[in-house]
Amino acid sequence: MMTSRATERVDVKPLLIIDSLHISYGSIEALKGVSIYLDEGEIVTVLGANGAGKSTLLNAISGLLPISEGTVTFEGEELNPIPAFEIVQRGISQSPEGRKVFSTLTVEENLNLGAYTKRKEKGIMAEARERVFSLFPILLKRRRQMAGTLSGGEQQMLAIGRALMSSPRVLLLDEPSLGLAPILVAQIFKIIHEINDQGTSILLVEQNAKRAIDIAHRGHVLENGRISISGSSQELKSNPKVQEAYLGGAALKK
């Protein structure tokens, strides 16, 4: 079992800052003043029930949803007016909930689409592809196979690999363990740990709270569009409300 990644915050400017974010779907306010930050080299997890606003948060950061109020700032630059493809170019990519691979394209074609913003930089694309195949050797074996014929776990690996093809500084992961068998969940989280060790900062949305808290440096609980609890991974583990709602009523062991 992986140990807690909790660390004290170093007094440096965060890589990614979400400040007082409001997102609405018509008259329904999905996010109500959410503020979080991600430091260089961190894994930060966002926990919450279905409908809490977790995917909305990631989609807003990615430029896929209009922001009603608040700001998203990356490396000191506000992203609100920037289109989604430019946000990928600047260093933020997302592996979406439900994988959303292109089922009628091969594994390699899916990966190449993830490198669309780097398509003129053949050396960078080749390096990114080798990194993905190193992390997910099964994708190398399946590179000519149609993505729709892959198993659920292999499709999840492909979705993460596709997101890595743009060589992001920040990787947004939306429910990477959803629908996977426990042995595959353990494998996916081991790889997420490795991606972070290679220098990629990660914002992780995940319903498997035990796995998410164990791998993260810090975390937040999102409830009804608002952050209700924040803290280091160890603080979340020892929080009675988190224990009751997400950890089966007992704190995780160190």
CATH fold category name of the largest domain: Rossmann fold
Low-confidence stretches: 1-10
Tell me about the biggest sheet? Answer: 6 strands, mixed
So, CATH architecture of the largest domain? Answer: 3-Layer(aba) Sandwich
Count the domains. Answer: 2
Q: Give the oligomeric state.
A: single chain
Strand order of the largest sheet: 6-7-8-3-9-10
Order of helices and strands: EEEHEEHEHHHHEHEHEEHH
| Strand portion | 15-25%
CATH secondary-structure class of the largest domain: Alpha Beta
The radius of gyration is: 18 Å
Shape: globular
The helicity comes to 25-40%
According to CATH, the homologous superfamily of the largest domain is P-loop containing nucleotide triphosphate hydrolases
State the secondary-structure class.
alpha/beta
